[in-house]
């Protein structure tokens, strides 16, 4: 099993941005040195009450020091973006990291972002599918003419092709059944993110595999899962320290309309910490991640950083994961 780290996106608004970047760069280096297999960076605009740097420039910077780590856009919200720009940026980044890029993509769920992009939430699915089809053409064809509902390209001759052929590995993120089916219908890895419990994840993998089969697609080699994570020497300490961080972070997400986090969020904090989050002592965390492996997951991205954590606490948790979890997990 490949174990990755999700960096960024959980810093409280108002923090010093210069320090934030230097801290997150130190997180990345510590995870690289600890032996994590990949690093993932998310994508949001106007993410108040948090503050957040953007994935393409960050991953390009990480590539200079990543060694053998893969770099994952986890996830890029492509309906917000022009697919020609994304195709060029992704091809460029794939060369910068010498083919270690994973193109993780999703729809997005925040109206503020779609308003800023000049589009509507109701258009996000057709924009996503049309944009991805155009990107694939730009990565593989000698000349591209595409006159679609949202995007037009006439007689274009692409000049930036990815390092990987025909294009980088694609993980399609989702939390709802239509999104899961879409990943399978398109023939790509389903990237299970958000608040899917173990039972919901088992069902989701069945839905995805059925959609792959209906489309005549083989099962992709990579089956990635994202999990929120907090480890401490004892279960009691882990839950006590994680509880206010979960409340702060997912209280903000509830305001944003994140699927699976609704008006009853406050009462659901304990449930989230039980399942799907991986929170506890090292042996308990290993056991929870092993259950994901039993479902077929090949890659697990752990989000190790929470609002309110000091740099010393973040680095200490990386050290604990390296000493107590990674050796066992890499044997799965």
Question: Can you describe this structure?
Answer:
The protein is an alpha/beta fold. Helices cover 46% and strands 18% of the residues. It is built from twelve helices and 14 strands. The strands form three sheets. Strands 1, 3, 5, 6, 7, 10, 11, 12, 13 and 14 form a ten-stranded parallel beta sheet that branches. A two-stranded antiparallel sheet has the order 2-4. A two-stranded antiparallel sheet has the order 8-9. Helix 6 links the parallel strand 10 and strand 11. Helix 1 packs parallel to helix 11. The N and C termini lie close together (6 Å). The model has no long low-confidence stretch (mean pLDDT 93).
Reconstruct the topology from this structure.
Blueprint: E1 2-7, E2 11-12, H1 17-34, E3 38-41, E4 50-51, H2 55-63, E5 70-73, E6 76-77, H3 83-96, E7 101-106, H4 111-117, H5 124-140, E8 144-147, E9 152-156, E10 169-174, H6 177-186, E11 189-192, H7 198-214, E12 224-231, H8 235-256, H9 269-274, E13 278-280, H10 282-295, E14 299-303, H11 311-324, H12 326-329
Parallel strand pairs: 1-3, 1-14, 3-5, 5-7, 6-7, 7-10, 10-11, 12-13, 12-14
Antiparallel strand pairs: 2-4, 8-9
Helix pairs in contact: 1-11, 2-3, 3-5, 6-7
Quaternary structure of the protein: single chain
H-E order? EEHEEHEEHEHHEEEHEHEHHEHEHH
Mean pLDDT: 93
Query: Span between N and C termini?
Result: 6 Å
Q: What is the 3D shape?
A: globular
Helical/strand content category: alpha/beta
Residues in helices, as a percent range:
40-55%
Low-confidence stretches: none
């Amino acid at each position: 099993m490949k174990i990755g780290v999700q960096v960024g996106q959980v810093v409280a608004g108002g923090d010093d941005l210069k320090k934030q970047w230097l801290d997150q760069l130190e997180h990345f280096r510590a995870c690289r040195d600890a032996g994590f297999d990949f690093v993932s960076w998310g994508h949001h605009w106007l993410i108040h009450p948090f503050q957040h740097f953007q994935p393409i420039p960050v991953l390009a910077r990480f590539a200079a020091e990543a060694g053998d780590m893969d770099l994952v856009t986890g996830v890029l919200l492509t309906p917000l973006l022009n697919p020609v720009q994304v195709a060029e940026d992704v091809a460029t980044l794939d060369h910068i990291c010498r083919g270690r890029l994973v193109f993780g993509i999703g729809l997005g769920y925040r109206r503020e972002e779609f308003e800023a992009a000049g589009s509507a939430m109701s258009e996000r699915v057709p924009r996503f599918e049309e944009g991805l089809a155009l990107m694939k053409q730009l990565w593989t064809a000698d000349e591209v003419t595409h006159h679609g509902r949202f995007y037009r390209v006439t007689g274009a001759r692409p000049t930036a092709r990815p390092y990987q052929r025909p294009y980088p590995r694609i993980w399609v993120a989702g939390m709802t059944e239509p999104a899961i089916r879409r990943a399978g219908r398109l023939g790509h890895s389903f990237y299970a993110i958000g608040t899917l419990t173990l039972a919901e994840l088992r069902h989701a993998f069945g839905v995805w595999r059925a959609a792959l089969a209906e489309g005549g697609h083989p099962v992709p080699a990579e089956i990635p899962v994202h999990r929120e994570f907090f480890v401490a020497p004892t279960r009691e300490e882990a839950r006590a320290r994680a509880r206010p961080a979960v409340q702060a972070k997912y209280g903000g997400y509830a305001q944003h309309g994140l699927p699976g986090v609704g008006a009853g969020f406050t009462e659901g904090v304990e449930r989230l910490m039980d399942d799907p989050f991986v929170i506890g002592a090292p042996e308990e965390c290993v056991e929870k991640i092993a259950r994901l492996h039993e479902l077929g997951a090949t890659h697990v991205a752990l989000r190790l950083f929470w609002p309110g954590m000091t740099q010393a606490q973040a680095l200490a948790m990386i050290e604990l994961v390296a000493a107590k979890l990674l050796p066992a997990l890499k044997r799965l």
